[in-house]
Every structure is written in structure tokens, then in C-alpha cells.
Give the backbone structure.
Amino acid sequence: MLVNLKEILAPAYEKHYAVGSFNCYSYETFRGCITAGEEMGAPVIAAFGAAYLANMSLETAHAIAASLAREADVPVCLHLDHCSEVDVICRAIKAGFGSVMYDGSALPFAENVANTRAVCRAAHACGVSVEAELGSLGVGVDSHEGRAEDVEQYTDPEAARDFIAATEVDALAVSIGTVHGLYKGKPYIRTDILEEIHRAVDVPLVLHGGSGTPEEDLRACIARGIAKINVNTEISSAVVAQTTQLLTREKPHYSTLSLRQVDYVKTVVKKYIELFECR
Ligand code: 13P
């Protein structure tokens, strides 16, 4: 069944587990993500990035997710990932998304607050949840989301408290050392900053840049208020690497290749579901 982000994150935040948010932009990624959740009896978030509008429309993304979620016996949230354009957010709400991320992290604080608050008013009136971001992530290898000019800036705990009070967002993405893409060097995750943010605010926190983050860091983050963890690059890398290997051995019909790719997606998603202890 399709649910909004607030519903899927509330029990996770309370019981200290995280729900995986997996980027979906094709039939294979949606099916791999949702059936992995179904097979493991775990909730999942299918995140359609605004960056993937060339792959499919918001309406198509909703139609695929809604159809697969109807067949699944677990909560599924269709979420719009990283979007700084309010008109696209309004279209996603109209298309039936249960959650949207307004990303004003590159803007000055006051502007980020004003825009996020306006998005929250519109979304909440339709029963749609909102995630926002404060601070900004660095960019790693093979990132498909970060921009070369993105500079890492940690989230300030005091600013996070003011931001949430002023905007009424349902979930806040924080910057504590994870990067979009794979790490260039050894990851250094600032769980000390996360702990301060967690003490300062009372909403589920979101960790972007899940790919390649050491398991012990992910567990430490979940214990400190992270209730949603985003994974994109690792799914893409696994599917491309395994498809490449397969094609050196066989020349399958495309329909068979599509099914294999669903399995490649599922394997990565299941690994994270297990790790996030969300079942
Ligand atoms: P990764 O590509 O590093 O897993 O990050 C995903 C993400 O944060 C999606 O918003």
C-alpha cells in the first residue's frame, strides 16, 4: 500500500530503525525496490529524483509505484527526491506522490526557511509529507546527484532547531560527513554533530549518501535519530557491473535481461533492509 513519509517514518524514529530510500527511475528499479520490501516484510521508500524526469514523467513514476505497491503487503512511500523547483513539487503532489523533498540547501537560511514553509503548507494540505535539507553534502565518485561545485557544510544543530520550528517539516536531511556517490578517501562521519542535532530537534532525521558508508557508521547514525537512509549509487554500480559481466557470457533476450536487473537491484536493497533492521 502507498503511504506518506510521516506514516512510514514515525515507527522507525520511535523504535530506532531506519527505512531505506532507494532511487528509482525505471521499471526495474521500482520493481526491485518494492519487491525486495515485500519479500522481506519491510517498508520501503521508492525515491524518484527530480534529476530523472528525462527517464519518466511524474505520472508514470506514480502509476508504476502505485501498481506495484497495490500488490505488496508492506507500506511503500513514493517520494520525490532532491527538488528545488516548486512547480515540479506541485506537479508531484498532483500526480499522487506521498512525499516531496524541497532542497533549498544551497540558499541562504532565511530563503530556505521561507520556501520550505510554503512547500509544507501546500503539501500538508494534501496529506503529503515534506523533507528538507540544511547544510550540504560533498560529492564522491560516480555521484549522479551532487554537483562538482558542491562543498561539504555540516548541519548546525541550533540552526536545525530554528529551521524545524519555522517550517514544520516532517523530516530533516542533515550533513554530517556522508557524500553523494562513493567516498574518495576514508569516510569520517560526524556522529558527534548528529547527536547534538538529535538532542536539539524532535523529527526523524535523514541521511543522504548511504552508498559506501561503513555499516558501523550507519548503525551509529540510526541510534542517533536517523530514520531514513538514501541509497542510489551502489544500486546503479551493481546493476551496471553485473549486466556487463552477464553480457560477456551470454546474449539474453532483453526481457530476460530486465528480470535479471530486477534481481540485481533487489540484492542491494535487501542488504540495506537487513542492515537497517526495519522488519
Ligand atoms: P548515494 O548515491 O551516495 O547512495 O546517495 C543517495 C542519495 O543521497 C539520494 O538522495
User: Anything to note?
Assistant: The beta strands are 19-23, 44-49, 76-83, 99-102, 129-134, 138-139, 171-174, 179-180, 205-207, 226-231. The pocket of 1,3-dihydroxyacetonephosphate is lined by residues 23, 81-82, 145, 180-181, 208-211, 230-234 (CB under 6 Å).
